[in-house]
Amino acid sequence: MSAITQVKQQFELDRLEVAIDQAIAVCGGDMRSAIRSLIIANEFLEHEVKELFVAVSRGYARGRSHAAPDLLPHDRKDWYD
């Protein structure tokens, strides 16, 4: 592995650690709240992607997709058992 690759990987790890610390700090140090907030944000983004997928015109997509894929299960209760 080259030195440049190692530097890039270390930069990404450092950036991720800073983001983790910020997410926990925003939630007052409560890690469960931080995780909950990140899950909610992720669900929102997944919903946005699904809506954008549907909004893309069929002509632009050249018929590659006839319907939006079901990206998310409708009921996620089983995820939290």
Instruction: Report the structural category.
Output: mainly alpha
Say how many strands there are: 0
How many domain modules?
1
The biggest sheet amounts to: none
Describe the 3D structure.
With 81 residues, the chain is mostly helical. The protein has one domain (3-68). The protein is 65% helix and 0% strand. The protein contains 3 helices and no strands. The chain has helices at residues 3-26, 31-55, 58-61. Helix 1 crosses helix 2 (31-55). It is flat and about 45 Å long. The relative contact order is 0.07. The model has no long low-confidence stretch (mean pLDDT 81).
Brief summary of the model shown:
This protein has helices at 3-26, 31-55, 58-61.
Task: Provide the fold topology.
Blueprint: H1 3-26, H2 31-55, H3 58-61
Helix pairs in contact: 1-2
Question: What keywords describe this structure?
Answer:
81 residues, mainly alpha
